[in-house]
Write a structure and sequence with these properties.
Elements lengths: L8 H19 L4 H24 L5 H25 L4 H24 L14 H6 L2 H21 L6 E4 L2 E4 H45 L1
Antiparallel strand pairs: 1-2
Length: about 220
Amino acid sequence: MAENIFLFIPNLIGYARVVLGIISFYYMPFDPIKASICYLLSGLLDAFDGWAARRFNQGTSFGAVLDMVTDRCATTCLLMTLCLFYPSWMLVWQCIVALDISSHWIQMYSALVVGDTSHKVTDLTANPIMRYYYKRPILFTFCAANELFFASLYMLYFTPGPTLTVFGYEVGAWYLVAIVTFPVSFLKQVVSVVQLIVASQNIGVLDANSRANKEHKQ
């Protein structure tokens, strides 16, 4: 009897992430506490679905796509909320969304075309930036800081957060988080540009080889 990959443990975790994400999106405009809790839980489960896939040998292309799409949708919906809260910065949020989706989609496509199961395991040695970026500690740091930057801006719309004293100055906690995570978030966008270029080059090589093979056969 064939396995039902849709009921694999990591994919069930993925479905839970989707549900938590939708709940978070509902609360985002008016209840930052509930929205943040659900968004955080969805993000934390992202680590467990990967662990479950390795632990139970249940890694699948569907799971990789589900993981990537869930991440992109979560970030996009958060940035859509920032468009609502900070309309003067709308073009920036729109460009970040477009870059995030396009770079990951093209990378995922190139990965699946060559037979890999995740956008995180293709051609890492082709570019030194991508090779180091996809090392787990670095990848986690960049992604976490990027999400924290957007989340801190979201929270700042409602409150500056608890007051902290830093070098003799009083500053709201969410302002501090935004300041600390901004440089990493900015570098994350730079990496997305590199990812977009590298993935496009990979597809270009595949196209060139395919055309050469057709010409050779003719």
